[in-house]
Amino acid sequence: MDGDRAVSVLADPDQWARCRHESTTLFDGDGVGLFWEAEQDPGQGSPQPYDPAGLSFDRWGRTYRSLPRAGRVKVTRQDGAGGPHRPGVLCAPRGLAVDPGQRLYIAESDAGAVHVVDLWAERLLRRVPVRDRTHPHRRPLDVTPHCEGAAVLLTVPEGIVLLHGRRGPLRGPALRRPPGADGLRPSRIADQAGQLHVLWSRPDGGPAVIARADGSHPVTVDHANDLDFHGDGTLVVARAPGLSFRRFRAEGEGWSEAEPLRAPRFDGGAMTVDPDDAIAFSTAYGTGRTAGSAARYAPRGSVISYRLDAGAYRTRWGRLFLDACVPAGTEVRCAFLTSDEDTVPDPLPWSPPGHGPRSVPHPEATPPLPPGAEFTGRLSTSRPLFRRPTGREWPWAQIAPDDSFETYEAPVDAPPGRYLWIVLRLTGTRSATPRVRALRVERPGHRLTAQLPRSWSRDGDDAAFLQRFLAPAEGLLHELDGRAALRTVLLDPAATPQEALGWLAGLLGLVLDRRWPVPARRALIAQAYDLFRIRGTAACLERLLRLYLPLPISVLENWRLRGLGGAVLGTGPDGPAAPAVGGRAHTSGALGRFTVGGMRPSEDSYTDTATAHRFSVLIPADLGPEQLDVIHTLVETHKPAHTKADICLLGAGMRVGRSLHVGLTSVVGPGRAWAPTVVGAARVGRDGVIGVPATGARVGETSIAGAVRVG
Asked: Could you tell me the CATH number of the domain that includes residue 430?
């Protein structure tokens, strides 16, 4: 097969931005798709009224929501249960924030103070007044975590102060009014990588401005009432009830908008990004999450590429490959235009994407677009795409299971020419759009026509037909040839296709368990020979378990915890005299038989049978039924036949008893990640697991017979 076949690629966001866009736009990391716009504001006049509040989360999954009218802060545990209902004693608590030290800050607006609560000990650390004789009407409006502490937004007069646990208030950065914020007042504050951003709005809604504290990088959003940031710096703006949440990404000195999100049942109180980087907001029934895109897409659009160069005149281009996501009801078609002319008279003007960069750097370096006068007449007919059942065209390439983009193929239906323009025509619905992430085109195409009689391809139309007719078969042969050239990939556990893992494991004498994740199966094959050398040992079993579960699993042999070895320090009363120590021992009295160490006074550790040939597998996590079954299978298969194993799930806390060993049966470190609680399958205090301990037990809540309350 010919080995000089090259490929022209269009995949980078900068490349897509240099194309001509007609009702299309750029998607972050997902190529191009149809232009979208936010839904129209429902109803006439002002949106529904709302009462600003606070919403925050701590490291244990508890939700803190302020109820300004009720004068209290509601706490909801991860399992959905709330704390005891107490009468409200706070004066309009509106802002909430939890800093990295797990201190809760409550902005009590009407009382002009900020409460700092230690969540570890569940006690009030201090109450910080922000009013003084100079500013008797100053009120805290909102609070946000900032630099190991919190930043508090103030009004009358406007400003920012900083709190750090027991220290503060300290003067914060200067608060400057951004352009376009005349008549607006600050209402919300959020931190992004140490940079404070402030929302400027008016009580009756209307246009609002979000900018940094110094007034730079402003963006205008209608009916905005709260803001927060994702971990990647994406700005999320909550709007009045019934409106979608808008999102923006920093782009140079400005912002580019991403697709808006639906917020069903949002009551206008508060919005925040939770520890899982999901958008949470308050509702009349508790806490909700965003529910997908709220964008409305254009019905059709097109992308016209800049000129691709084959490097040689009269080149017959080969196949086009597109990595695209085409939902049901949408379609992608392609058309082509070729030319051998080095100059392009009257090229089509560049048109930017609907959302994204409005200019490109160094536009003079962009190859020209097709000629405008001849574009429509010379363009080939739009043709549908063929979805490749074998995935990517690269030898042994695999598509990730979570990748929704598949590879589509089409022949370049155009006359020979050095230069090529590609036109993608996208058709969608109001709620769905096709997306094209990358395209690749072969240059030149196959050369099978040169091996056939010349009379078959002397006519141009005949040659074009043969080129298209032979392209699928030649493409299959070309890919088989590429796989044969790279057949050594099959012996690489990290690169071999997933369907070949079982075959590769068979060469090593392994039978893979399909319940294992694919990365774990690859790692097992790669380490098979090293594991065979130490098979039957605790180290081998521990490594196998850690390959399946990426956790600090320990295999503990019980004899290691049997105590010290018994040492006889004397003889019985009726036995012989005690041996002399240093030649000066007194024999007036016998020392008696006394054993140091061992499990019991009458039994030393070497005669104890409770620990012989027994070991425990300590797993610092809670496993599902399938994972636990895999662990049992692993242990029974790879342990010595004369041993007995006990599998111990440690969860995420410490176990109280004589078997409390730091680093073995207890894990000191961050708490476990969030997980859903199944009704009827969760018990408080199960297995004696205690959560995060506080500084000590509380006075009056500890007794010999009763329970001990920690924290």
From this structure: 2.60.120
